Amino acid sequence: MKLLPQFLNGFFKENPVFVIVLGMCPTLATTSSLEKAIGMGLASTFVLVCSNLIISSIKKYVPDEVRIPIFIVVIATFVTLVKLLMAAYFPDLKAALGIFLPLIVVNCIILGRAEAFASKNGVLESVADGLGMGVGFTLALALLGSVREILGSGSLLGIPFFDGVSAYTQTIFILAPGGFITLGLFMGFFNYLALRKHRYAKAGGDDEK
Question: Is residue 129 one of the residues assigned to a domain?
Fold first, then answer.
C-alpha cells in the first residue's frame, strides 16, 4: 500500500467531518473560534497517530475478545498525556476546550480508525492513515472555526477583522444553530464536488465506450 494516497485519503475522499460525518459533538462544540478548533484538531491528530502506531504494533498479540477495551486503554493513555501537556503549556486552551478534551477517548473517528484500519494494517500505513485523518479533521475544524469566528465575533484568533465590528457580525454563528448552518453548507459543498467528480468520471467512461 502506498503511504501518500493513504495520507491524502482523509483530506477529501474520506474527510472525517464533511464526508464520513464523524465526531460531530466536538466539531460543533469547539469551532466557535479558530483557536479552539485548531487546539482540538491537533490534540486529536496526536492521539490518532500515536494510538494507530501502538495498536498496529500490538495487533497480533491482542485477543479478539478484548480488543476494544485494549484499544480504549491505549487511546485514553495518549489523551491523558495530551491533557497533562496542555495543562502545563496551554492552560487557557485546555480550559476553553473543557470536557471535550477528555472526550477524545470516545471520539468515533479515533476508535473507528483503530478498529477499521490500524488493527488490520502495518505500522507505517497506520501512521499515515492516522496523520491524514487527523490533518483532515484539523483542517475541517479550522475552516468551520474561521468562518464562525469571523461572522460571529468579527475577529480571527482574537484579532478584529472589521472596523465597527458590531455592524457586521451575527452572533448566531458562534452559537449552536450557527454551527449547524456552517457545517451543513460545507457538507453540501463537499457533496457537490463529489457528485460532480462522479459525473465527470462516468461521462469519461461513456466516451471511452
Answer: yes
pTM of the complete model: 0.88
Question: Which residues span the domain enclosing 73?
Answer: 3-204
Based on its alpha-carbon atoms, the radius of gyration of the chain, rounded to whole angstroms, reads 19
Query: How does DSSP classify residue 98?
Result: G
Burial 130-169 (b: 16+ CB within 10 A, else e): bbbbbbbbbbbbbbbbbbbbbbbbbbbeeeebeeeeeeeb
Digit-coded pLDDT (tens) for 103-152: 898 888 898 888 888 888 899 999 999 999 999 999 999 999 999 998 88
Provide the number of structural domains found in the chain. Answer: 1
- 209 falls within a domain: no
pLDDT digits (tens, 9 = 90+) for 40-96: 999 999 999 999 999 999 988 888 888 899 999 999 999 999 999 999 999 999 999
Q: Is 126 contained in some domain?
A: yes
Examine residue 13 and state whether it is found in any structural domain, yes or no.
Answer: yes
